[in-house]
Design a protein that fits this description.
Layout (H helix, E strand, L loop, with lengths): L1 E6 L1 E2 L10 E5 L3 E5 L17 E6 L4 H4 L14 E6 L3 H7 L15 E6 L2 E4 L3 E6 L7 E7 L2 E6 L6 H6 L5 E5 L16 H11 L3 E5 L1 E2 L6 H11 L5 E4 L4 E4 L1
Parallel strand pairs: 2-14, 4-5, 5-6, 6-7, 11-12, 12-13, 13-15
Antiparallel strand pairs: 1-3, 1-16, 3-4, 8-9, 9-10, 10-11
Bound molecules: zinc ion (2 copies).
One zinc ion binds next to loops.
């Protein structure tokens, strides 16, 4: 199974990266985690006959801005979107005229399923839980291809993120802030709090993404994270756009 980090910025696009989008390329599924402008790079990847599933953690624009280029793709098996409770009506408002083409006008079928908090079979098992973020944010634990992949985007440190990540093969989480930074009014992770979630959950590998565009202004600044953490035990991966990771 491959993980492709297509967009690794939080907030807005820069020369360094596009806004957040991650692809899990399983044998049968192409699973897209959030739809920032990084989704544009999906066209470079051969999806074949895979079923395409898109998980939207929340509706902040850096996670959904790429929805307006959905008409660029041909998903032969259609597109299944999974989002948290109550967000379908907003998606149907934004992905519609006068903003862009409506879901119904795309050249393939689209289904939208709201997920509450719990366990769902879609048909592979998915566990969801609420994270800490203004307006809410949904973390997901995917059991796919014999691996546990957990995605905890926009959140501060919280018990729910630790519980979701328990013994995961890979934890993909955000790292909007730099070492030592925090903001109680607008919670995000920094390298230490992301690592804390990985450590406490026993996740085997930690992939950091969603670096705040206004804080991390170069890939070099991201790459310094490992040095700053001065930590060698946990397998920490610092993402960049176009990175491919085998799981
Ligand atoms: Zn974000
Ligand atoms: Zn957000």
């Amino acid at each position: 199974m491959e993980i492709h980090t297509l967009g690794t910025n939080g907030w807005y696009d820069t020369r360094v990266s596009s806004t957040i989008c991650t692809l899990i390329l399983d044998e049968d599924y192409a699973i897209i985690l959030d739809a920032g402008y990084g989704i544009e790079k999906l066209s470079r990847i051969e999806l074949g006959e895979r079923k395409v599933h898109l998980y939207l953690s929340h509706l902040h624009l850096d996670h959904i801005a790429g929805l307006h280029i959905l008409n660029k793709f041909i998903f032969t098996q259609g597109l299944a979107i999974f989002c948290y409770d109550g967000s379908e009506k907003y998606l149907r408002t934004i992905v519609a005229p006068p903003f862009t083409a409506a879901f119904e006008d795309l050249p393939y079928s689209v289904s939208i399923q709201e997920l509450g908090i719990g366990t769902f079979n879609v048909p592979y098992p998915v566990v969801t839980n609420q994270l800490i973020h203004p307006g809410g944010s949904m973390g997901v634990r995917l059991n796919i291809g014999g691996k546990i992949i957990v995605y905890c985007p926009d959140t501060g440190y919280c018990e729910n993120a630790v519980a979701l990540s328990k013994d995961a093969d890979l934890l993909i989480t955000e790292c909007a802030y730099k070492s030592g930074m925090s903001n109680e009014l607008w919670p995000h992770l920094n390298p230490e709090s992301a690592l804390r979630i990985a450590e406490e959950s026993g996740a085997k590998r930690l992939l950091l993404t969603h670096f705040d565009a206004n804080i991390y202004k170069s890939q070099k600044e991201r790459d310094r994270i490992k040095e700053d953490l001065n930590y060698s035990r946990k397998d920490i991966i610092i993402s960049y756009d176009g990175m491919v990771l085998n799981v």
